[in-house]
Amino acid sequence: MDTTLLIAAAIKIGVFIGITLSFVSICVIFERRFSAIIQDRVGPNRTMVPLSILGFKKDFALPIGGLTQPVADGLKFILKEDFTPAYVRKFFFWLAPALVVVPALLTMAVVPFGSPMQIGESWIPMAVADLNVGPLFVFAIASLSVYGITLAGWASNSKYPFFGGVRSCAQMISYEIALGLSIIPVLMMFGDLNLGHIVEYQAANGWLLLPMWGEGWTLERWLMLLPLGIAFVVFTTSIFAETNRMPFDLPECETELVGGYHTEYSSMKFALFFMGEYAAMVVGSAIIVTLFFGGWSIGFGLDGMLPIGAWWVSLLHIGCFLTKVTVFILFFILVRWTVPRFRYDQLMTLGWVVFFELALINVFLAALILAFPAIGWGGFIGGFIALVIVSFLLIKIAKGASTTTREYGAV
Amino acid sequence: MATIKVQRPKLSAGEKIYFGAIFKGMVITLRHAFRSLVGKSVGAKELNSTGVGITMQYPEQKWDEELPEYYRGTPALVTNEEDREKCVSCQLCEFICPPKAIKITPGEIPTDDEWAKVEKRPKAFDIDMIRCIYCGMCEEVCPEEAIFLRPDYVVTGTTRKEMVHDKDRLYEIGGKRVGLVNKWNDLK
Ligand code: SF4
Ligand code: SF4
Question: Nearest C-alpha of chain A: how many angstroms from B24?
Fold first, then answer.
């Protein structure tokens, strides 16, 4: 390994973690301002740079509409008293917040931020780790954060956090199945698990959900839009559930559980949970963008015209990627302030009865379409009929299961 | 106890899929967001806001003209038409004040004064505006109609001392009140 790569890796780690963390604070200000204008309010719009506490005469009002609010929020969290109740299990109580933040930040390592940059002889991929098992790594690490929340609930040694922890445990494990199954069609389509290659393919041949250039104009790609659309819906919804965002934020639902798993936490420990939630949201948006909306590619065949490898092209692509992620974050926020919270049994029914089956059928549907050139019309129609029959039976069983839950109450 | 069975409404297939409802909801929330951004929120004009939502940007914009005459802001002392302090320092308000915000030092009116027959007036009259809860009890209880809750509400200060309104300040806020009880005048 030559030194250029090592230095580049160190720089990339610093920069990308910096980007993710600053996105977390951007998320917070977006969340507050966007929810405010949705509700016909103003939101925090006049936070200043408090020069007066540094000994200057006047506070300095930047005309930036309260963009310094996250700084003030952060400072507040750091300066608050860090109170640890006497009855908690100390070790796990301290461990839990870290277990929430670290996985969220770790998953960012495989996301390609931009097109590879050429420095001297070596090509430097714009991802911290250009793994060949990108999506699997993301799922493996992201599912670790359930330990953080569950441990927080358990270690707090108090009822409401415990309920929150249990709920989140069940919820995240249920939705992980739908999450994993739903992207199988996507991976079958690419035939590759390297996120960098996936994005390069999309840059050349049309984004997954927008096959409009390169080799995108084939019947197969347009037929694939159906299973891919289903995959997108299931995946996005499962990401909402995984990140404990609004329609599925039962682990911390204020009306029932005070604060849920973080009720007993204060100060910076609480801030870590807060950051973990938003970092998970940023990573979720990044993954969705990478898989379905072409990652860093500008699209419409424009990437092919740029001299890939030049530093400014890489930066341009990073900008493009971050713009897309921002749009998705805004979408996350919009959903949070639009959709009311689900009931817990509805959540479980949606996960196990609807999404699990849907994702499963979807895998075979995608396989059928992809196999069409090999099996011909006969195989296609036979397979299709078999799939319809199996899906029908599956739906029947699922319906039976869901009525049982409705009659006997949520389990 | 009679049991009432409630039938859940039957949903059509479109309603069961749920996406239509989410989409409609998003259109509504986005419309609100957009209206807020261009300053056309419903009610923005009636509430006289800057337009970002229906919120009024407080220190720059105020609603003072709209305040009703009976608005219960800071309590203040008043004088009558002839500039006589109406308060006779009976200390009823001091006793009634729930958070004990009022402190009165009564004083005698000298015999050579025009209003000697009133006998007493406050030497010092302090209302601690940190304690005051704007309940209006003092106004209610005053037999002389000498203390009123005025429509001023901006009471700020950087020290505790600044927040205590003394007699001069109270008369300055209260000003002159005409056409009320004129117990001590010849008019009566
Ligand atoms: S308004 Fe109420 S609290 Fe304030 S001074 Fe009068 S009696 Fe006391
Ligand atoms: S303000 Fe009224 S109640 Fe209070 S001491 Fe003066 S006369 Fe009495």
Answer: 9
